[in-house]
TrEMBL record:
Protein name listed in UniProt: Malonyl-CoA/methylmalonyl-CoA synthetase
Entry keyword annotation includes Ligase: yes
GO molecular function, one term: ligase activity
Residue intervals of the AMP-dependent synthetase/ligase domain: 8-345
Keywords per UniProt: Ligase
Domain (AMP-binding enzyme C-terminal): residue spans on this chain: 396-470
The EC number(s) this enzyme carries: 6.2.1.-
Top EC group: ligase
Species of origin: Amycolatopsis magusensis
Lineage: superkingdom: Bacteria
Family matches, as InterPro entries: AMP-bd_C (IPR025110), AMP-bd_C_sf (IPR045851), AMP-binding_CS (IPR020845), AMP-dep_synth/lig_dom (IPR000873), ANL_N_sf (IPR042099)
Pfam families (UniProt xref): AMP-binding, AMP-binding_C
Family per similarity comment: Belongs to the ATP-dependent AMP-binding enzyme family.
Length: 478
């Protein structure tokens, strides 16, 4: 089956729009089909790098590579020299696809280049490879070493997008609005390829702004994808922006991902609009694993239940499955299903290390309640704090801190302590005058159990974040 059946139908329906530039399915079919035909002339096993700006050309480039059966390697336009050198050396692309006029950095400038021209003509779409063929190689953020190239087969993309059709009741009538970057899973695979798989439409905002978002949701938009930093900005503006509140009120679904959305922001958005934001959970290696369902109970702070066809389990430190669903017992999330990646490119050692008899070790820690809803408490490496014999998840404490009127942003880490093993450290961006340290400690002890209270509070002007809005905790205190 084709990844994008609507391209074969080639209707005049709008497929994708960036600002005042748009392509219908008929236009996208001919433009992408023409480029795909030329990419098929590359030698076998060739890959192409895509200079992944937030443009119509990036969408065409990736769709063309998928039609041609040539693995695409999206490259972050803000990438650093060392990281770019590693990705180019590791993936060895035969060609770089870029928008006309784009200035490429030195690491890509030496590759053969093909500009993406949006010219149309009569073309027959080429036959597509089988489901196990590699579709994309997406590089991880490289927090614990050089970025690893995650090889995603075609079946991972198709199965994930089809199971989200079920979870979010996603149809060809939906118009998705987002302003996410196009070099990673969230913005590119879910945000651009998802609507095209459904035969729907996508409007990319270019640069995210609440005014642009409101205009599109008050118009044709029915769905929004965003990250917590976007929803935090929305929550702060809703009280004095009735147009924004009305726009969100009229959306069919609002979906947040890439990091945990603080419960406080959930509550502010619901109070102003009546909407309850859906959270889901995925990774580069697994695409999507769980989600709150559009037709299910919304539980703020949870990432919902396993998606159709995806097996999810929690395991303890001994690797044994945790059977209890008490909402308190913390375990590592492990996943198996058709959504999984094939391998880390050129890293058989790293690939073997993350699999346990077919289950992928995510490194994420969570609890599970009686209804099967997962609540992420953080990464095993950075967010699970072992203090005084207790296992403490950083996320729960961060949510509690954000309920304090004097806290704009919060991150929680652990650091060595001679008595406790590790002590809880709170990193606080104040909202106005700096709140007293003891006041924050007492606030957490009152909302949670006392052993979860911070032992140290450190004030910062801003939290270090990556392009997807995730806090880079390893950079705190560096």
């Amino acid at each position: 089956m084709r990844l994008f059946p609507a391209l074969e139908e080639a209707s005049d329906k709008e497929a994708v729009r960036f600002g005042d530039r748009a392509l219908s399915y008929a236009e996208l079919s001919t433009v992408a089909g023409t480029l795909a035909t030329s990419l098929r002339e590359l030698p076998g096993q060739a890959r192409v790098a895509v200079w992944a700006t937030a443009t119509l050309e990036t969408t065409v480039a990736v769709v063309s590579a998928l039609l041609a059966g040539v693995p695409a390697v999206p490259v972050n336009p803000k990438i650093g020299e060392r990281e770019l050198q590693h990705i180019v050396t590791d993936s060895a692309p035969a060609l770089v696809l870029a928008e006309p006029g784009a200035e490429l950095p030195e690491g890509l400038r030496d590759l053969p280049r093909k500009d993406i021209e949006l010219t149309s003509g009569q073309v027959e779409l080429p036959p597509e490879p089988d489901d196990e063929a590699p579709a994309m190689i997406v590089y991880t953020s490289g927090t614990t070493g050089p970025p690893k190239g995650v090889v995603l087969p075609r079946r991972a993309i198709s199965s994930t997008l089809d199971t989200l059709e079920d979870a979010w009741q996603w149809t060809a009538e939906d118009v998705l609005v987002h302003g996410l970057p196009l070099f990673h899973v969230h913005g590119l695979i879910l945000g651009m390829l998802g609507p095209l798989r459904r035969g729907g439409s996508v409007i990319h905002l270019g640069k995210f702004s609440t005014s642009a978002l409101a205009a599109e949701l008050l118009g044709p938009g029915t769905m929004m994808f965003g990250v917590p930093t976007m929803y935090h900005r929305i929550a702060g503006e809703l009280e004095h922006d009735e147009a924004l509140a009305a726009a969100l009120r009229g959306a069919r679904v609002l979906i947040s991902g890439s990091a945990a959305l603080p419960v406080h922001d959930h509550q502010r958005i619901t109070a102003a609009t009546g909407q309850q934001v859906i959270e889901r959970y995925g990774m580069t290696e697994t695409l999507m694993n769980t989600s709150v369902r559009a037709d299910g109970e919304r539980k703020p702070g949870t990432v919902g239940v396993p998606l159709r066809g995806v097996d999810v389990r929690l395991v303890d430190e001994a690797g044994q499955a945790i059977e209890t669903s008490d909402g308190e017992t913390v375990g590592e999330i492990q996943v198996r299903g058709p959504n999984l990646f094939t391998e880390y490119l050129n890293r058989p050692d790293a690939t073997a290390e993350v699999f346990d008899d077919g289950w992928f070790r995510t490194g994420d820690m969570a609890t599970r309640d009686a209804d099967g809803y997962l609540r992420i408490v953080g990464r095993k490496a950075t967010d699970l704090i072992k203090s005084g014999g207790y296992k403490i998840g950083a996320g729960e404490i961060e949510n509690a801190l954000l309920e304090h009127a004097g806290v704009a942003e919060a991150a929680v880490t652990g650091e060595p302590d001679p008595d406790l093993g590790e002590r809880v450290v709170a990193w606080i961006v104040p909202d106005g005058p700096r709140p007293a340290e003891q006041d924050l400690i007492d606030h957490v002890a009152r909302l949670l159990t006392p052993h979860k209270r911070p032992r140290v509070v450190r004030y910062v002007e801003a939290l270090p974040r990556n392009d997807m809005g995730k806090v880079m905790k390893r950079a705190l205190g560096a």
